[in-house]
Amino acid sequence: MNFDPxxxxxxxxxxxxxxxxxxxxxxxxxxxxxxxQAMRRHIRRENxxxxxSDRTYQLEDYQEVLVVGAGKAGASMASAITELLGDRxxxxxxxxxxxxxxxxxxxxxxxxxxxxxxVPGEDxxxxxxxxxxxxxxxxxxxxIIFLLSGGASALMTLPPTGMTLDDMRSLTSLLxxxxxxxxEINTVRKHLDQAxxxxxxxxAPGAQWITFILSDVIGDPLDQIGSGPxxxxxxxxxxxLAILEKYQITRKVxxxxxxxxxxxxxxxxxxxxxxGDPAFFKAQHVIIANNRQACQAAQNQxxxxxxxxxxxxxxLQGEAREAGKFIAAIAREVSRHxxxxxxxxxxxxxxxxxVTLKGGGKGGRxxxxxxxxxxxxxDLPDVVIITLASDGxxxxxxxxxxxxxxxxxxxxxxxxxxxxxxxQRNDSYRFFQQLNDLIQTGPTLTNVNDLxxxxxxDYETL
Length: 462
Description:
With 462 residues, the protein is α/β, with parallel strands linked by helices.
C-alpha cells in the first residue's frame, strides 16, 4: 500500500508547520497493516510445499484449493494469495464491501462479490448463499483458504428459517445505536445466522481449513472477528438473549429473533459448535495483522521523526465522548506537566469505542471522540489530536475521523457552532465538515479498529 499523505489533509493540519511529520506517522500506521503485505509475511511457497506460520502443507495432497472469504480487506488478501498459489487455485468466492473492489482483476478463478455494510442487505444474503454452495461442493481431499477481515458480519448474512433479512437489519441498527460493544453485537449475531459462530466449517466437513485473519476486534478473539465463521464459539444463546435485555431492546426487535434465542436457551435448537468440537481438528487460524501492529508502526515512525513516542493502550473502549475527554486529559498532562513524556510527544491509542445515539445527527465514534476532546483542549496551544478509523470509514459516513487543535473551539464559535450542541445531537460529522477538519481518506482497504494520536509540540519547532 502506497498511502498518499495528502489524503489526511484538513484545514487544521495545513496550519501546522510540522504536518508532514504527522502525515508520515499516520501513513506508517496504515501501511504496516496492508492486507497483501501482511499475507506475504505469514505464508510462503516452496515448490509444492505451502508453509503457513509453523505448519507445512503438501499441495499435491489436495484435490482442489479453494479461496473463500468475507471482509473489507478481502480483495487485497485474495490478490496476495493468488500471486502465491495462482496455478493451484481451482475456485473461489470472496465477499467485500461496496466500493472495495480491486483496481484491476487479479484472477478469473476467484469471484469478488460486493455487499452492504454496516447494515446487511439482499446482496449480503446472496453472497452468503453463494459461498455456502461452493463449500458444500467440496470433499475431504480439498484445501479451503478462508480470508477473514472486519465487516464480514454484515457482508455475509444468512438468517435461519423463520427469520427475515429485515429482522436482521432492524436488529443490527438497534445494536449499533444502543451503545453495545462489538463483542456483544457479534455474540448476538452468531446465534442468529447460518454462517457465523463456527457454523461455516460444517458446510465443508473434513476439508482442511486455513483461515487468515485481519483482526478488527480488541484482543484478537477468534470467535469474535467477523463473528467467528470458522472458529469455535464459546458464547451461548442465553448470553445473546441477555445482551438484548441489557440494552432494553428485547421488545423492539422482531418476535422471531426473541423466539429463536429463547428456543436456543431452552435447548430446542442446537448451540453453535464449541471449543473441542471435532469439526475444527483440521483448522488453522492465523492472525496476519491487528491494531497493535499499526500502533507499533506509528510509534516507530514517530520516534524517527524526533518525537518521544509511546503506545498508551490498544484497549480503548467505552463511550466515544468519554474516551475523548480521557484523551484530552492525557494531552493536558503532557502539555502542562511534561508527564508521562516531555515535548515533543506523540502518544498513540488503539481500540474501538461506541456511541449511544440520542440525537438525529450524522457522525461516527472517531468523530464524536474528537468533538468531545475539542472542548477540553481549547487552552492548550501545543496540542493536536487526531482520530482515525483504519478502514477509512467512521460509522455511516465518508470520513475516517477528524483533527482537533486549540483553535477548533474558537473557529467553531466564529461560525456560530456549539460543540456541546453538536455532541448532544450526535452530529460530529457536520461540525467538522463546516471547519474543513474531517479526514476523508476514502477506503484504505484494510481494517484493524481505530487509532487516536495525541501530539504535543510547540508550533514553532520543527
